[in-house]
Design goal:
By secondary structure, the chain is an alpha/beta fold. The protein folds into four domains: 57-212, Carbamoyl-phosphate synthase small subunit, N-terminal domain (Glucose Oxidase, domain 1); 217-440, Rossmann fold, CATH 3.40.50; 460-575, Rossmann fold, CATH 3.40.50; 594-666, ATP-grasp fold, A domain (Dna Ligase, domain 1). The protein is built from 17 helices and 35 strands. Helix 7 (312-324) links the parallel strand 18 (298-301) and strand 19 (330-333).
Length: 684
């Protein structure tokens, strides 16, 4: 049944117990989840052949003649649709209930699906399903490599198999989804049929292109519905998957702005975002509703499935509003981006295989910042067809396709991705802020400028090296420093390296232009600065030793006196991260918390701080190499002994609330001048 279902003798994936029967050639099934085919054999002796035959064969047939064999789960029925793939590692409950997937057979590229089950179908105060994007599953079928019959998560209330069966949706597992994805990537989206062997209707099933029908009409509301923000204070984290607060919410008027949202397949989370986060009163209307004569403060055009050309009524209504009320703010998401473009006079086209996933990079054309976005669309706007007055707002960094449009003067803009989907998680929430500001300030016209400074040409840069390394120590500063030296050489900058350890990559012959095998101390570094007269200095490639040295040189005024520019992380940022109190204040400004702690310079101060925080505590020496003078203390006696050792290595010790037993995740993050960040690696 696969690695997440039954193996002979034991089953780690779903808790079954299978042992050898009285007859050596037979197996006794003791326990097993009932919705798995092996569940029919509980308490019986069976054979391997009977176990394998319990699976229901199924196949995925594509329009190009390709056939992929597997086994059925969910509802045992055959179906047809457009085969597309999603690259998300998690989020299948949200994806399967996304109306934008209507008419499609979804291939999930992550190898194991269903391992955390499906949450309860509870509703929030707005009457919306709190853990799903709509009231039903919209995909025609699901294709996975490996399927888990039982989920393991504290929110799980049912299995993926049972959930699909309840909603009448078929699935197939045991398919090489890598091969299917490569096929779609090379040939484009293909029509497909999911055929279940037990379904007698297989022979009559024909390929059907869902894009030839009006999918929006099938998923849109039939009647208009109004959602209002609740009275009083609201804990937005109850309804949102992000903890960041929107700056616009605090400045909302006493009477909520009224937004008219066109439902082309709107996701629940969009409504929650508008109502709970932005405190707006939202009236959601069907896709073909004539809103041209209605009164509202802003127009929102939602996401949805299929070809935007099918939404001709919506396009006509939007075009009429643009002509009659040119100062009315308009904001569109996903299909809304395409509808706004068509209303403006631009054109759209069907993409080869579309963009579907949670990690699509989009570049803001105004600032060149790159954002990680969640997407689900098979059509796109042709940027070259935009009429005068319009310009591309966002562009996809992978394929160069349009990801948003904006008008030069009017308060009209839209994006192709989902800013409410928390892919960043809240990197693009400013788009909602801009929409609300367009409403609150009718004469407001957003002008984005990029901070610019004349480039500085550096001729010679001093690099503080990694220092001594012993066997077993990590050499991250050594290899990162060597990469910095290579980058300086490629830029035509003379590199001067200070590193006391000859056995490092940094000190390899021919890498740096000049190497000083001297200790990285303030006095030696000052001497080299006065001798070499460098334009700049890099202090982040020598570990804690180089950081401490740089802080002391800054306090002495050596850098300013000799005209040396600190490149990379500023000294102020180094001090903020090293000083626990400053670091805690900086983290609080971001809306997060750190473990309770105190900075102490004596044993008595540490004892008093620990008494206030509560034992056990973690003691660390500030501004010191990792591990020096650090440890856990369960009582004042242990604390006094350890603090004396810590103060021998540093003038300050940090007493933290112990988080022993918690899991720590550490990320190495690289950030460029445009505030684009990538995580190089993570450690657990």
């Amino acid at each position: 049944f696969g690695s997440s279902c039954c193996r002979l003798k034991f089953h780690p994936g779903c808790g079954s117990r299978v042992r050898q029967g009285q007859n050596p050639s037979r197996l006794l099934v003791q326990t097993h989840p009932m919705d798995c085919p092996l569940g029919t054999f509980i308490g019986q002796e069976t054979s391997l052949i009977e176990v394998l035959n319990a699976r229901v064969p199924a196949s995925l047939e594509l329009q190009d003649g390709s056939v992929f064999h597997g086994f059925s789960f969910g509802l045992e029925k055959s179906t047809t649709g457009e085969v597309v793939f999603n690259t998300g590692m998690v989020g299948y409950p949200e994806s399967l209930t996304d109306p934008s997937y209507a008419g499609q057979i979804l291939v999930i590229t992550f190898p194991l699906v269903g391992n955390y089950g499906v949450p309860a179908e509870g509703r929030d105060p707005l009457g919306l399903l709190s853990s799903f994007e709509s009231d039903q599953i919209h995909v025609k079928a699901v294709v996975v490599s490996d399927h888990s019959w039982e989920g393991s998560h504290y929110t799980s209330r049912t299995s993926l198999n049972r959930w699909l069966h309840q909603h009448g949706i078929p699935g197939i597992y045991g398919v090489d989804t890598r091969a299917v994805t490569k096929l779609i990537r090379n040939h484009g989206a293909l029509l497909g049929k999911l055929l279940v062997q037990s379904d007698a209707t297989n022979s009559a099933l024909q390929f059907e292109d869902p894009n030839l029908t009006n999918l929006v009409a099938s998923v849109s509301r039939k009647e208009k519905e109004t959602f209002s923000p609740p009275e009083g204070e609201v804990d937005e984290n109850t309804f949102m998957t992000s903890i960041a607060r929107d700056v616009v919410a605090s400045g909302a008027p006493a009477k909520p702005w009224h937004i008219l949202a066109v439902d082309c397949g709107v996701k629940n989370n969009i409504i929650r975002y508008l109502v709970y986060r932005l405190r707006l009163r939202v009236t959601v209307v069907p896709w073909d509703y004539d809103f041209t004569q209605d009164e509202f403060d802003g127009l929102f055009i939602s996401n949805g499935p299929g070809d935007p050309q099918m939404c001709f009524k919506t396009v006509d209504h939007v075009r009429t509003v643009m002509q009659q009320r040119p100062r009315l703010p308009i904001f569109g998401i996903c299909l809304g981006n395409q509808i706004l473009a068509l209303a403006a006079g631009a054109s759209t086209y069907k993409m080869k295989f579309g963009n579907r996933g949670m990690n699509q990079p989009c570049i803001d054309m105004r600032t060149t910042r790159c954002y990680i976005t969640s997407q689900n669309h098979g059509f796109a706007v042709d940027s070259k067809s935009l009429p005068p007055g319009w310009m591309p707002l966002m562009v996809n960094a992978n394929d160069g396709s349009n990801e948003g449009i904006i008008h030069h003067q009017r308060p009209w803009f839209s994006v192709q991705f989902h800013p409410e989907a928390c892919a960043g998680p809240t990197d693009t929430s400013f788009l909602f802020s801009q929409f609300v500001r367009n409403i609150s300030e009718p004469m407001y016209t957003g002008v984005t400028t990029i901070p610019f400074s004349m480039p500085t040409i550096y001729h010679k840069v001093l690099v503080l090296g990694s220092g001594g390394l012993t066997i077993g120590q990590a050499g991250e500063f050594d290899y990162s420093g060597s990469q910095a030296i290579k980058a300086l050489r490629e830029s035509g900058v003379t590199s001067i390296l200070m590193n006391p350890n000859v056995a490092t990559v940094q000190t390899s012959w021919g890498l740096a232009d000049r190497v000083y095998f001297l200790p990285v101390t303030p006095d030696f570094v000052e001497q080299i600065i006065k001798r070499e007269r460098p334009d700049g200095i890099m202090v982040t490639f020598g570990g804690q030793t180089a950081l401490n040295c740089a802080v002391e040189l800054e306090e002495r005024g050596v850098f300013q006196e000799n005209g040396v520019q600190v490149l990379g992380t500023p000294i102020k940022a180094i001090i903020t991260t090293e000083d626990r109190e400053l670091f805690a204040k900086a983290v609080e400004t971001c809306g997060y918390k750190v473990a309770e702690s105190a900075c102490c310079s004596s044993v008595n101060e540490a004892v008093a701080a620990a008494a206030k925080i509560g034992y056990p505590v973690l003691v660390r020496a500030a501004f010191a190499l990792g591990g020096l003078g650090s440890g856990f203390c369960a009582n004042p006696e242990e604390l006094r002994s350890l603090v004396q050792v810590s103060l021998a290595h540093s003038s300050q010790v940090i007493v933290d609330k112990s988080l022993k037993g918690w899991k720590e995740l550490e990320y190495e993050v690289v950030r460029d001048a445009n505030d684009n960040c990538i995580t190089v690696c993570n450690m657990e």
